[in-house]
Amino acid sequence: MSIDFFLITFIILVFLVTIFFPISGYLKIKNLKKRIAEGENHGKIKFFYSTIFWSWIPIFLILIMMPISGVSLESLGIKWINIDTSSVSKWILFPAIGFYFFFLFYNIYSIIIFKYNEERSAKAAEGIPDDFSSFLPTTQNERRIWDLVSVSAGISEEILYRGYFFFALAVVFPNLAIIHILLISTVLFGIGHIYLGKEVIKATLLGLMFGIFYIVFDSVIPVIIFHITQDLVLRDILKEEI
Known about the structure:
Layout: H1 3-37, H2 43-55, H3 57-69, H4 90-116, H5 118-126, H6 130-133, H7 140-172, H8 178-192, H9 200-217, H10 221-232
């Protein structure tokens, strides 16, 4: 493995998620609110496309790093599910699997309910902070782009924060225990979403949950699926004002 290039990539990606993404996210949301206040109809769509673009920059860097440093897809968790009962206590393993499927189906249920039941979606919308609701979709066109945002975030963020950082932290700091890697990757995920304001607490807790799922399944694929459904729950909560 080319340790020098691997380390350089690691430093760049840590910089992106701890400094660049929080600052650029804050500025993009500030600009979005200004566009909305000025009555710009396509402000959210531009924001969504920008979010999709930047979410794939880290993945592009990882793809460049992989052949140079000899890193395989399997090392980044892009593989079939492998539940190893010898490495995780059954008292954690089975509840975590049950928790995963319960909330996965709950997410799917919520997606359907919020799409077709206006009363339930209106009630859910009341609990969303104004700062957070400002960049949620309201029109059909925005919802179509939000589908892309959800899929993009689910794939790119899980490969980055779970697949890559779990592997990279173990390589750069070989003495770290898996619990420490879980906590560090969770903190990085939270910092990367700090531009969400108070909602960063929920995002960090979700990051912790995603990390546990990744450890349990030893694959990023089920975590990607869960992440996508989690984002799609927000798709139809806000209705377009006529």
